Model the fold of this input.
Amino acid sequence: MSYEKIEQPVEVLVAFRGERPEPMVFKWGNRYYQVQKVNLVHAERLGREKVYYFSVSDEANAYRLSFRTESLIWRLEEWCAFT
Done:
């Protein structure tokens, strides 16, 4: 298994299931990644800003996305390959 901190901005397509956002697809670099499963969601406060973390996965990898409520920025925080 390989793990890497990324900490880069990404574009995210989100669906709302009830009142909860759920990442569906994100674009990192020139590639699109289809989210197959949301494994965990948690939040923390960083000063005034609330940051939501989404641990998601596809067939081959796991990713940790973050969304910052003040700046409205999505980031890919971490990547983990299952190989």
Remarks:
- The first strand starts at residue 2 and ends at 9.
- The chain has a mean pLDDT of 95.
- The two ends are 5 Å apart (CA to CA).
- The chain has no helices and eight strands.
